[in-house]
Amino acid sequence: MHIHLNPVGGISGDMFIAAVLDLYPELEKPMMQTRASVNCIENVQVNVVENQDSVLRGKQFKVRYSAKDYHSTSYIQFSKILADAGLEPAHRDISFQILEELAAAESFVHGVAKEDVHLHEVGSPDSIVDIVFAGYLMQQLRGASWSCDALPIGRGRVHTQHGELPLPAPAVAILLEGAPVYDDGRLGERVTPTGAAILKVLNPDFNLGRSSMNLIGTGTGYGTSRIEGLCNVLRLLAFEPIEMGSDFEQISLVEFEVDDQSPEDLSTGLNRLRGVRGVLDVVQIPAIGKKGRMTVHVQVLGEMEYLQDILAACFNETSTLGVRYQTANRVVLRRADLTLSREEDAVPVKIAKRDGGVTAKVESDHLAQVGNYGSRKREKQKFESVVESSAEFRNLLK
C-alpha cells in the first residue's frame, strides 16, 4: 500500500491524526485505548469529530485540558514518560523517533545539548497526545510507503514561550531541510514542529511522479486555524499497486550531442558511463548537428534517485557542455534471472512474463564462448526451449 500526503493547508500532529482516522476509522478505538498507558495524559479529553466548511468535509482531532494541567516538559522528562508508558514496543519506538527529531532540532536552534533541551509548546499535554497517537497510527501503517507534495512554508510570526519567532519556526526549518517548500502568500503557521517531525520519521518521497496505481481511499484532517480562501486540511490518498504482468515506473532520460570528441575516446567515455551507478542503458545515434557537422546524439536512461550522479558523469566522460534531462514513464515486463546447471558449466538465462506465457533468452556473454554459429544457435534453442516448456519456471513470475 502507498499513502500520499497532500498538505493543502499544511501539516500538524492533530491534522495528521485526523486525516488518518478519516481514512481508516477502524483505528480510532484502539488508538484511544493507548491513552490509558501514558500516565500524564490519561485524563486529557480527546475527541475525533466530523468537521466541514463550505467546501470539504473531514475529521478534526481535538484535545482539551485544564490550564492548571499545562506544564512544559524537558526532553529528559518526555523520554521518561514514553519509557514508563505501557505501550507496545514498536509503538513506543516510533513515538521516541518523533521526540528525538524534535529534540535534535531544538538542540541545534538553541545551541544546547539534547539532554538540556526544554520543550515548551511541544511538551504540553496536547503535543504529548499528538506524538503518542501519531506514533500508534504510524506503527499500524508501518507496511505502507509514503510520498508528499511540496509544503506551504507559511509567513509572519508565531507566539511562543521564547517570544515571537519568525515563520517557519526555527525548529521546523531545521526539520524540513531538503524538503520542497513554497510560499503561497498567506500568513500563519502552516507546518508545526510536531507535523515536521512526523514527516521526518515517515521520510516520504517528494518526487511527485508516481507509477499507475489504484486509488482505494481518501482521508481529510482539519487543522484548528482558519486560512482565508483555503481549506486548512491535510488530505491523504491511499493507493494499491495495479496487479498485472508488467510494472510501471519512472526513469530519467538524459540527452546531449557530441561533435568534437574522437570516436575512440567517446567510446571509452560512454563505456565508463554505462558503469555509473543508476545507469540503465546508454545509446548513441549518428546525427547531423549545427553547421552541417556530423554529431553523435547520446541518450542515457537511469534511475531517478541517481540523476545527479549520472549528470556529473556525462560531463566528466564526454566533451559536451550541456545536457537535457526529463522524467520518462516506462513499462517493464516482469522478469527473472536463472542459472541452469550442466556438467561442464552453468548457463545463465533471462525469463520474462508475456501474455502468451514465459519467454527465455540465453545470455549473449555465455553464447560468445560457445563454438561457431551452428553451436551457438543449437545452445540457444536447447536451453530456451527447456525453460519455456517448464511449468516450474513459469510459476516463478506469478
Structure description:
- This protein is α+β, with helices and mostly antiparallel strands.
- The protein has 3 domains: 2-241, no CATH class; 247-331, Alpha-Beta Plaits; 335-397.
- Helix content is 32%, strand content 31%.
- The chain is built from 12 helices and 19 strands.
- It has helices at 13-23, 28-33, 75-84, 89-110, 125-140, 170-175, 193-202, 263-274, 307-317, 364-367, 373-388, 391-394, and strands at 2-6, 45-52, 57-64, 73-74, 118-119, 145-148, 151-152, 157-160, 163-166, 181-182, 213-222, 233-241, 246-258, 279-288, 294-303, 324-333, 335-341, 346-354, 357-362.
- The chain has a 6-stranded mixed beta sheet with strand order 2-3-11-12-1-6. Strands 14-15-13-16 form a 4-stranded antiparallel beta sheet, with helices on one face. It has a 3-stranded antiparallel beta sheet with strand order 17-18-19.
- A hairpin with a 5-residue loop joins strand 14 (279-288) and strand 15 (294-303).
- Helix 3 (75-84) runs antiparallel to helix 4 (89-110).
- The model has no long low-confidence stretch (mean pLDDT 86).
- Detail the poorly predicted runs: none
Put simply, the count of helices is: 12
Report mean pLDDT, rounded to a whole number: 86
Mind telling me the C-alpha Rg?
28 Å
Shape: elongated
Number of domains: 3
Largest sheet: 6 strands, mixed
- Per DSSP, what share of the residues sits in E-state strands of 2 or more residues? 25-35%
The amount of helix comes to 25-40%
Query: Distance between termini?
Result: 19 Å
